[in-house]
Specification:
The structure is a homodimer of 285-residue chains. By secondary structure, the first copy, chain A, is of the alpha+beta class. In chain A, 44% of the residues lie in helices and 13% in strands.
Chain lengths: 285, 285
């Protein structure tokens, strides 16, 4: 059951049960939703794409991605986010270098860098000569992060609907000062995540990645995820067969995940985030 | 042009240009996307819903929302998030009280509280007797926030596709300790955003909210948003006529936004976030 799950091609899987199978490797099968629809199907069929056709995107694509992004909710409608669209090959190469040397950053025709942005409102406050001390608190920075991520995820879904693939770059935070200098970010602005966008290279297709069972992430009324040990053991096995099917180095998910957080040296520069945010005048109070 | 924008009903607007008009009040009109599709249409038609039919959701709905949420990307596939589904009337009433006394928290049949969750991996590390010092850094907490928000936004889009409305509750962070106690959150877990979910009350419909023009949030190659002052003046006017059309108190967006961040007392408890996160053992190093 588990082994077959990832072989389903989401582009040809018309049933929700097929997509459910690919995401969870079987297990829980709720009744199909009251109104099966192409939006839900598209969400379930998502997978990150790391192999791109480098051809530029069709004209107007970026504007529709941004319209989708701006259609996401924004906390108190403050719109404390911005985005920089990078298409220049040399700038992409430098960003790739700053972000863990991932080849797809060079390959993708478009890299979007999503920014938490308190600078716009700080600028307005300065013009209006009113205090904006609230912007100095961690919660306001978090608001900027949340706004940026909501916008980015809408762009991801919009891109997929247009036949494009995407992959996030958390590694854009490996060297925040270099990214800030490269993109000319003013005080009050920092890069939360990057996003590669492009037409997927069909010769190197991506697969739907299985996730932990719902019982691991969902609780009712109070926090009480079900028996961690049992579901992690099963999920380790599911992911081992997934990696094998993708020709990737086979690892236990639990070991791989714990290795990623072993200590500061595994954060690849991100253990310096506080220092970098202070340099960028991001509120942490 | 601006005045007419918000009168468009996204449910009956079949053209992308109508939705574009509602979101921006005219202005930039790129050519329609190469492959207009229902996903993009649904994204552009989004609006937050604050008036709900309190009837419970159909069976299986929650599971599909969670499947959509788990289909969102996750940083390094660490899945550092969880969610608590609250349906109990008394618990919803208490959460409403903690979150700025917003009536729709009581009204919505389902409230989802999205959590940054480093506790699952900390638990695994303890079992495996390996260090997990990386979890103590701010970047890892930020990863949890990003994972939680990506998941939440997928659930929002899934809910909308099933005919449901949603509204985020940033105010769930007004009193983090009370929310943590109410939901039994262990160390390493904190509530990032809440989300009300339910069938929209058709007698109190919500409208698509206009946003800043794209030139205010989008830069090419380097950060350089266009002339803030000009577009803010226009946007203030757009929002004044939007609020008037909704029978809401008319305010300038810029003044309202600056008032929201004037000082710590305007943060309604959120100026204490650092203290609350420390109490919850969230890494801030």
């Amino acid at each position: 059951m588990t082994k077959a799950a990832h072989r389903i091609d989401p582009d040809t899987a018309h049933g929700f049960h097929d997509l459910w199978q690919a995401r969870y490797g079987g297990g829980l099968s709720p009744s199909p939703p009251a109104a099966p629809n192409p939006v839900l199907q598209s969400l379930l069929a998502h997978r990150s794409v790391r192999a791109f056709d480098p051809a530029p995107l069709e004209e107007g694509t970026l504007e529709w991605l941004i319209a989708a992004a701006q259609s996401a909710p924004s906390s108190s409608n403050l719109q404390t986010w911005s985005v920089v669209a990078v298409e220049d090959a040399e700038r992409k190469a430098r960003l790739a270098e700053f972000a863990g040397n991932q080849g797809h950053v060079r390959e993708a025709p478009l890299v979007l860098v999503w920014l938490a942005d308190l600078a716009r409102l700080r600028g307005l406050a300065q013009q209006a000569q009113v205090p904006i001390e609230g912007a100095d608190y961690l919660d306001s920075s978090l608001m900027g992060v949340i706004d940026a991520v909501l916008a980015a995820q809408n762009a991801v879904i919009a891109a997929q609907s247009l036949g494009l693939g995407t992959v996030y770059l958390g590694a854009i935070r490996n060297h925040p000062e270099r990214v800030a200098a490269e993109l000319g970010l003013p005080p009050g602005v920092f890069a939360v995540v990057g996003l590669c966008v492009g037409r997927p290279d069909v010769s190197r297709p991506a697969a739907v990645k299985p996730r932990l069972p719902q019982s691991a992430v969902l609780s009712r009324e109070r926090y009480s995820p079900s028996q961690t040990q049992g579901h992690v053991r099963n999920y380790d096995a599911t992911m081992q067969s997934f990696y094998a099917s993708q020709g990737m180095p086979v690892a236990r998910w639990s070991e791989h995940s714990l290795a990623r957080l072993r200590g500061p040296e595994q954060l690849k520069g991100r253990h310096r985030l506080v220092e970098a945010l202070q340099a960028q005048r991001i509120g942490l109070r």
